[in-house]
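I hope you will forgive my troubling you with a question about protein structure. The matter concerns a single protein, recorded as an amino acid sequence and a row of backbone structure tokens. Please examine both parts with care and let me know of anything in them that strikes you as inconsistent. Here, with my thanks, is the record as I have it:
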Amino acid sequence: MTTLLVIAKEPRPGRVKTRLTPPFTPQEAAALAEAALVDTLRAVAATPARRRVLVLDGVPGPWLPPGFDVVPQCAGGLDERLAAAFAGCDGPALLIGMDTPQVTPALLTVDFADCDAYFGPAEDGGFWALGLARPDPELLRGVPMSTPTTGAVQHERLVMAGLRVRELPRLRDVDTARDAEAVAASAPDSRFAAELGRLGVAAGR
């Protein structure tokens, strides 16, 4: 069975979702980040898994449900932190971030029986999910992160390693206010959508 990894930041004002400010305040951006994290962790908690791990920059809060192991993120760039997350796994693993609150257990239920890797592209050119049947940190180290070509480079790295790659549906990350509106519309019953609606009404947006 697969280990599910969530790499995330503690939702503290000024440290998360800074591209949402403006139009949102740092406190509002942190509230949206927490809502996105809650939705993500709930989806992971509802997905069959060998182990569920939160790879966290910060400290856990009341938003963390039971059933998760919490490990700290290592130092270094995002490629190093992702590589370290996979290095802690001794079997098949699927890693996601906290920026896709629309994710569902169905999307996270993967089977490596006829493939070596899963790749979930993001609309901004990155990726929202990466799964490896045999976690190898070197598949991530050196991949330029947070660029419009990050996803293409990471996918090419998998292919050049000779892995059979299965692609997951393309999802939209929450980075900007426009992203937030689009993602909330795609998951109207989510905690994220409710929080965005609450903040919009409170601010008269």
Helices lie at 26-45, 78-87, 105-108, 150-160, 177-186, 191-202. The chain has a mean pLDDT of 95. The two ends are 45 Å apart (CA to CA).
